[in-house]
Amino acid sequence: MAEHNDSSADTPEVDPTSPDRPGRAMRIGFRRPVAKTAGTVATTTRAARRRSVQHPVRSTVTLAAVVGLVATVAIPAFAAVRGETAEAQTLQQVAASNAQSLVVGSEAAPAALDRSGFTATTPEEIQKKKDQEAAEKAAAEALARRLSAASSTASSSSSSTYSDPIPLVAPGSGLVRRPLMSFNNFGTPYAGHRGTDYMVGGGTPIYSVADGTVVASSESGPGWGVYVKVAHNINGVNVTSLYAHMTYGTRAVQVGDTVSAGQLLGQVGDTGRAFGTHLHLEIVVDGTYVNAENWLVTNGA
Protein backbone atom coordinates (compact mmCIF):
# COMPACT_ATOMS: atom_id res chain seq x y z
CA MET A 1 0.00 0.00 0.00
CA ALA A 2 1.60 3.17 -1.15
CA GLU A 3 1.71 6.25 1.23
CA HIS A 4 0.23 9.54 0.12
CA ASN A 5 2.38 12.61 0.97
CA ASP A 6 1.08 15.87 -0.34
CA SER A 7 4.06 17.93 0.89
CA SER A 8 6.69 15.90 -0.91
CA ALA A 9 4.76 15.94 -4.07
CA ASP A 10 4.04 19.74 -4.15
CA THR A 11 7.34 21.17 -2.70
CA PRO A 12 10.37 21.26 -5.00
CA GLU A 13 13.69 20.20 -3.65
CA VAL A 14 16.14 22.91 -2.82
CA ASP A 15 19.85 22.42 -2.89
CA PRO A 16 21.32 23.31 0.46
CA THR A 17 24.42 24.63 -1.13
CA SER A 18 22.48 26.72 -3.57
CA PRO A 19 23.01 30.50 -3.22
CA ASP A 20 19.33 31.01 -3.72
CA ARG A 21 18.30 29.25 -0.51
CA PRO A 22 16.25 31.70 1.59
CA GLY A 23 17.78 30.91 4.92
CA ARG A 24 21.30 31.33 3.73
CA ALA A 25 20.49 34.49 1.99
CA MET A 26 19.12 36.01 5.19
CA ARG A 27 22.16 35.02 7.24
CA ILE A 28 24.53 36.31 4.62
CA GLY A 29 22.53 39.51 4.32
CA PHE A 30 22.74 40.13 8.20
CA ARG A 31 26.50 39.88 8.19
CA ARG A 32 27.08 41.87 5.03
CA PRO A 33 28.66 45.30 5.78
CA VAL A 34 26.56 48.34 5.10
CA ALA A 35 28.08 51.10 3.11
CA LYS A 36 28.52 54.39 5.11
CA THR A 37 27.80 57.72 3.67
CA ALA A 38 29.83 60.88 4.19
CA GLY A 39 27.19 62.43 6.61
CA THR A 40 27.18 59.42 8.83
CA VAL A 41 30.95 59.42 9.19
CA ALA A 42 30.97 63.10 10.14
CA THR A 43 28.32 62.65 12.80
CA THR A 44 30.16 59.75 14.36
CA THR A 45 33.38 61.72 14.52
CA ARG A 46 31.78 64.68 16.35
CA ALA A 47 30.15 62.39 18.91
CA ALA A 48 33.45 60.68 19.61
CA ARG A 49 35.14 64.04 20.11
CA ARG A 50 32.48 65.17 22.59
CA ARG A 51 32.84 61.94 24.53
CA SER A 52 36.61 62.32 24.60
CA VAL A 53 36.28 65.91 25.95
CA GLN A 54 33.59 65.10 28.53
CA HIS A 55 35.37 62.05 29.98
CA PRO A 56 38.32 63.95 31.56
CA VAL A 57 35.97 66.60 33.05
CA ARG A 58 33.74 63.93 34.59
CA SER A 59 36.75 62.13 36.01
CA THR A 60 38.13 65.35 37.54
CA VAL A 61 34.82 66.20 39.23
CA THR A 62 34.51 62.67 40.64
CA LEU A 63 38.05 62.72 41.97
CA ALA A 64 37.48 66.10 43.64
CA ALA A 65 34.30 64.83 45.33
CA VAL A 66 36.07 61.75 46.67
CA VAL A 67 38.98 63.82 48.01
CA GLY A 68 36.55 66.25 49.73
CA LEU A 69 34.68 63.38 51.35
CA VAL A 70 37.85 61.81 52.66
CA ALA A 71 39.05 65.14 54.05
CA THR A 72 35.71 65.80 55.75
CA VAL A 73 35.74 62.48 57.56
CA ALA A 74 39.43 61.96 58.21
CA ILE A 75 40.56 65.43 59.38
CA PRO A 76 38.09 65.79 62.34
CA ALA A 77 38.84 62.24 63.43
CA PHE A 78 42.54 62.93 63.30
CA ALA A 79 42.06 66.18 65.19
CA ALA A 80 39.97 64.46 67.86
CA VAL A 81 42.54 61.70 68.35
CA ARG A 82 45.34 64.21 68.47
CA GLY A 83 43.38 66.45 70.86
CA GLU A 84 42.70 63.58 73.29
CA THR A 85 46.32 62.61 73.23
CA ALA A 86 47.42 66.20 73.86
CA GLU A 87 44.94 66.61 76.70
CA ALA A 88 46.05 63.40 78.41
CA GLN A 89 49.69 64.45 78.10
CA THR A 90 48.92 67.94 79.38
CA LEU A 91 47.12 66.64 82.47
CA GLN A 92 50.01 64.35 83.29
CA GLN A 93 52.47 67.17 82.88
CA VAL A 94 50.36 69.49 85.05
CA ALA A 95 50.00 66.83 87.74
CA ALA A 96 53.74 66.21 87.70
CA SER A 97 54.80 69.88 87.70
CA ASN A 98 52.16 71.25 90.09
CA ALA A 99 52.20 68.48 92.67
CA GLN A 100 51.49 69.78 96.20
CA SER A 101 52.28 68.41 99.62
CA LEU A 102 50.97 69.15 103.15
CA VAL A 103 53.45 69.29 106.01
CA VAL A 104 51.97 69.16 109.53
CA GLY A 105 54.21 69.98 112.45
CA SER A 106 54.42 67.20 114.99
CA GLU A 107 54.18 69.74 117.83
CA ALA A 108 50.99 71.38 116.54
CA ALA A 109 47.86 70.83 118.63
CA PRO A 110 44.32 72.29 118.38
CA ALA A 111 43.49 75.01 120.83
CA ALA A 112 41.31 73.83 123.68
CA LEU A 113 37.73 75.12 123.61
CA ASP A 114 36.82 76.78 126.89
CA ARG A 115 33.22 76.02 127.79
CA SER A 116 33.46 76.97 131.44
CA GLY A 117 30.99 79.79 130.95
CA PHE A 118 28.37 77.70 129.13
CA THR A 119 26.18 74.91 130.42
CA ALA A 120 23.57 74.73 127.64
CA THR A 121 24.35 73.15 124.30
CA THR A 122 21.02 73.07 122.47
CA PRO A 123 18.58 75.89 121.57
CA GLU A 124 15.99 74.35 123.90
CA GLU A 125 18.38 74.30 126.87
CA ILE A 126 19.51 77.86 126.15
CA GLN A 127 15.90 79.09 126.01
CA LYS A 128 15.08 77.20 129.23
CA LYS A 129 18.03 78.84 130.96
CA LYS A 130 16.94 82.28 129.76
CA ASP A 131 13.36 81.70 130.96
CA GLN A 132 14.61 80.58 134.36
CA GLU A 133 16.81 83.65 134.73
CA ALA A 134 13.94 85.92 133.66
CA ALA A 135 11.60 84.32 136.23
CA GLU A 136 14.16 84.72 139.01
CA LYS A 137 14.70 88.34 138.06
CA ALA A 138 10.95 89.03 138.01
CA ALA A 139 10.52 87.42 141.45
CA ALA A 140 13.35 89.49 142.88
CA GLU A 141 11.88 92.69 141.45
CA ALA A 142 8.43 91.84 142.83
CA LEU A 143 9.88 91.23 146.29
CA ALA A 144 11.78 94.52 146.14
CA ARG A 145 8.57 96.38 145.22
CA ARG A 146 6.68 94.79 148.13
CA LEU A 147 9.43 95.61 150.59
CA SER A 148 9.57 99.17 149.31
CA ALA A 149 5.82 99.57 149.66
CA ALA A 150 5.93 98.11 153.16
CA SER A 151 8.72 100.45 154.21
CA SER A 152 6.85 103.47 152.89
CA THR A 153 3.87 102.69 155.15
CA ALA A 154 5.91 101.91 158.27
CA SER A 155 5.74 105.49 159.55
CA SER A 156 2.11 105.97 158.62
CA SER A 157 -0.83 105.35 160.91
CA SER A 158 -2.53 101.98 161.05
CA SER A 159 -5.11 101.02 158.48
CA SER A 160 -8.58 102.39 158.98
CA THR A 161 -10.02 99.01 158.06
CA TYR A 162 -9.58 97.92 161.67
CA SER A 163 -11.76 99.00 164.54
CA ASP A 164 -10.36 101.40 167.11
CA PRO A 165 -8.06 99.83 169.69
CA ILE A 166 -9.91 98.62 172.80
CA PRO A 167 -8.14 99.51 176.04
CA LEU A 168 -7.98 96.36 178.16
CA VAL A 169 -5.20 97.00 180.62
CA ALA A 170 -2.93 99.88 181.54
CA PRO A 171 0.30 99.96 179.52
CA GLY A 172 3.21 98.48 181.40
CA SER A 173 0.98 96.41 183.68
CA GLY A 174 2.68 93.27 182.47
CA LEU A 175 -0.54 91.65 181.28
CA VAL A 176 0.25 92.27 177.59
CA ARG A 177 3.72 91.76 176.10
CA ARG A 178 5.13 92.38 172.68
CA PRO A 179 5.72 89.16 170.66
CA LEU A 180 9.20 90.32 169.46
CA MET A 181 12.13 91.76 171.35
CA SER A 182 12.77 94.00 168.34
CA PHE A 183 10.54 94.70 165.38
CA ASN A 184 9.89 96.84 162.34
CA ASN A 185 6.20 97.19 161.73
CA PHE A 186 5.26 98.06 158.17
CA GLY A 187 1.49 98.04 158.53
CA THR A 188 -0.91 96.30 156.18
CA PRO A 189 0.81 95.46 152.83
CA TYR A 190 -2.36 94.82 150.80
CA ALA A 191 -6.16 95.15 150.94
CA GLY A 192 -7.91 92.47 152.95
CA HIS A 193 -4.79 91.74 154.98
CA ARG A 194 -6.11 91.12 158.49
CA GLY A 195 -2.86 91.25 160.39
CA THR A 196 0.20 93.37 160.91
CA ASP A 197 3.55 92.29 159.52
CA TYR A 198 6.79 92.77 161.42
CA MET A 199 9.88 92.59 159.29
CA VAL A 200 12.54 90.73 161.24
CA GLY A 201 15.20 88.19 160.38
CA GLY A 202 14.53 84.49 160.15
CA GLY A 203 14.94 82.57 163.38
CA THR A 204 13.96 85.52 165.62
CA PRO A 205 12.07 84.19 168.72
CA ILE A 206 8.31 84.81 168.91
CA TYR A 207 6.59 85.16 172.30
CA SER A 208 2.95 85.01 173.42
CA VAL A 209 1.31 88.45 173.90
CA ALA A 210 -0.61 87.34 177.01
CA ASP A 211 -1.56 84.40 179.16
CA GLY A 212 -3.80 81.92 177.39
CA THR A 213 -4.40 78.49 175.88
CA VAL A 214 -3.13 77.20 172.53
CA VAL A 215 -6.11 76.53 170.28
CA ALA A 216 -4.26 75.87 166.98
CA SER A 217 -0.76 74.73 166.05
CA SER A 218 0.10 73.58 162.52
CA GLU A 219 2.93 73.18 160.03
CA SER A 220 0.70 73.88 157.02
CA GLY A 221 -1.86 76.56 157.66
CA PRO A 222 -3.91 78.01 154.75
CA GLY A 223 -1.64 80.82 153.59
CA TRP A 224 -0.09 81.10 157.04
CA GLY A 225 2.41 78.26 156.67
CA VAL A 226 3.65 77.25 160.15
CA TYR A 227 1.49 79.06 162.72
CA VAL A 228 0.21 79.06 166.34
CA LYS A 229 -3.05 80.52 167.67
CA VAL A 230 -3.66 81.34 171.34
CA ALA A 231 -6.94 82.28 173.09
CA HIS A 232 -6.78 84.87 175.94
CA ASN A 233 -9.12 86.35 178.54
CA ILE A 234 -7.94 89.79 179.48
CA ASN A 235 -10.06 91.54 182.14
CA GLY A 236 -13.07 89.53 181.03
CA VAL A 237 -12.57 90.31 177.31
CA ASN A 238 -12.01 87.45 174.86
CA VAL A 239 -8.91 88.01 172.74
CA THR A 240 -7.13 85.70 170.29
CA SER A 241 -3.65 86.14 168.86
CA LEU A 242 -2.27 84.35 165.77
CA TYR A 243 1.42 84.08 164.81
CA ALA A 244 2.05 83.00 161.20
CA HIS A 245 4.91 82.21 158.75
CA MET A 246 7.09 80.54 161.38
CA THR A 247 10.07 78.42 160.39
CA TYR A 248 9.39 74.70 159.90
CA GLY A 249 9.97 72.61 163.01
CA THR A 250 10.25 75.55 165.42
CA ARG A 251 6.79 75.39 167.04
CA ALA A 252 7.30 75.08 170.78
CA VAL A 253 3.66 74.47 171.80
CA GLN A 254 0.78 72.20 170.82
CA VAL A 255 -3.00 72.51 170.97
CA GLY A 256 -4.22 72.53 174.62
CA ASP A 257 -0.99 73.86 176.07
CA THR A 258 -1.32 76.71 178.59
CA VAL A 259 1.06 79.58 178.01
CA SER A 260 1.97 82.72 179.85
CA ALA A 261 2.73 86.23 178.60
CA GLY A 262 6.18 86.29 177.00
CA GLN A 263 6.45 82.49 176.60
CA LEU A 264 8.32 81.19 173.53
CA LEU A 265 5.99 79.96 170.77
CA GLY A 266 8.33 79.53 167.77
CA GLN A 267 10.70 81.34 165.39
CA VAL A 268 10.21 83.79 162.51
CA GLY A 269 10.27 82.31 158.99
CA ASP A 270 8.77 82.72 155.52
CA THR A 271 6.51 79.67 155.17
CA GLY A 272 3.09 79.88 153.54
CA ARG A 273 2.19 82.88 151.41
CA ALA A 274 5.08 85.04 152.54
CA PHE A 275 7.55 87.27 150.73
CA GLY A 276 10.62 87.43 152.91
CA THR A 277 10.95 86.45 156.56
CA HIS A 278 8.53 88.24 158.87
CA LEU A 279 5.93 87.70 161.60
CA HIS A 280 2.29 88.00 160.63
CA LEU A 281 0.38 88.92 163.83
CA GLU A 282 -3.44 88.97 164.06
CA ILE A 283 -5.36 90.26 167.09
CA VAL A 284 -9.13 89.66 167.42
CA VAL A 285 -11.05 91.30 170.28
CA ASP A 286 -14.57 89.97 170.94
CA GLY A 287 -14.72 88.63 167.40
CA THR A 288 -13.47 91.84 165.73
CA TYR A 289 -10.13 92.21 164.00
CA VAL A 290 -8.14 95.13 165.33
CA ASN A 291 -4.85 96.70 164.32
CA ALA A 292 -2.27 94.62 166.16
CA GLU A 293 0.30 97.39 166.54
CA ASN A 294 -2.27 99.87 167.86
CA TRP A 295 -3.55 97.27 170.34
CA LEU A 296 0.01 96.60 171.58
CA VAL A 297 0.70 100.31 171.97
CA THR A 298 -2.53 100.73 174.00
CA ASN A 299 -2.11 97.64 176.18
CA GLY A 300 1.43 96.39 175.85
CA ALA A 301 4.40 96.72 178.17
By DSSP (H or I, 4+ residues per run), the number of helices equals 5
Strand content: 15-25%
Helix content: 25-40%
- Can you count the beta strands? 9
Major sheet: size, sense and barrel closure? 7 strands, antiparallel
The CATH homology group name of the domain at 196-299: Glucose Permease (Domain IIA)
Q: Assign the CATH class of the domain at 196-299.
A: Mainly Beta
Q: What is the residue-averaged pLDDT? A: 73
Radius of gyration: 70 Å
Structural class call reads: alpha+beta
The gross shape turns out to be rod-shaped
Assigned CATH architecture of the domain at 196-299: Distorted Sandwich
Domain M23ase beta-sheet core: 192-291
GO molecular function: metalloendopeptidase activity
Transmembrane segments: 60-81
Keywords: Membrane, Transmembrane, Transmembrane helix
